[in-house]
Amino acid sequence: MAEIGRRHLLGGLAVGGGLLAARAALAKPQEIDMAEIKKDADVACAYHCDFGDPGRIGQMITNINNHLSVYDHDPFRIKIVVVAHGQGIKPFLKDLEGTPWSKDTVPSDIFARYEGLSKFGVEVYLCQITFKNNKIDLTKVRTEPFIKLVASGVATVAALQSKGFAYLKVG
User: Fold this and answer.
1) If you count Cβ atoms within 10 Å of the first and of the last residue's Cβ in the chain, which end, N or C, has fewer?
2) Which of 83, 90, 91, 87 has the alpha carbon at shortest distance from 167?
3) Quick one: CA torsion of 106, 112, 117, 119, rounded to 10 degrees?
4) pLDDT digits (tens, 9 = 90+) for 87-108
């Protein structure tokens, strides 16, 4: 009887550990490799965001929406990604506490507008070097599926251009 109890205990611990590992994996966005990124529409564009000014970010979001409107917001006709590094990651953090921007504020509508764009296939690629260099825990990143992690923002911009994505930067 004691052997069965121990087996159940060990099995329960293994399942519990697996669930904790799965939960930890879900605590940060998916990491993508450059080889995984495809230009799957005739028109593709990478918007480069390394700035944190809410007005400038808002203008970029407006430009992206205008860009999409020419293609009837059809994600089969146009693919847009935003590559964010430096201060450009701020809207994608749950909060700014413990970051170099802890005294800044990000208007809540900025993230809501990004979420709205995601309904038309817009994805956001966040630079892991920014997190490492600024000692920001990746669990601070919002976990919506349109947010992805890339090794380097600038390397991603270059890789996207080599795959046929046009490059745009606002301001």
Assistant:
1) N
2) 83
3) 150
4) 999 999 999 999 999 999 999 8
pLDDT higher than threshold 70 for residue 1? no
Identify the sign of the CA torsion 33, 39, 41, 45. positive
- Tokens 């994600």, residue located: 75
What are the boundaries of each domain within the chain? 1-28, 32-168
Poorest-pLDDT segment among 14-23, 34-43, 147-156? 14-23
For 14-45, the DSSP string reads HHHHHHHHHHHHHTSPEE--GGG----SSEEE
Check: pTM over 0.85? Answer yes or no: no
Q: Give the integer Cα–Cα distance in Å for 81 and 166.
A: 10
Paired tokens of 143: 């976990």
Q: How far is CA 30 from the centre of its chain?
A: 8
pLDDT at position 13, please? 54
CATH, domain range 32-168: 3.40.1260.10
Burial of 100: CB neighbours in 10 Å, binned 0-12, 13-18, 19+: middle
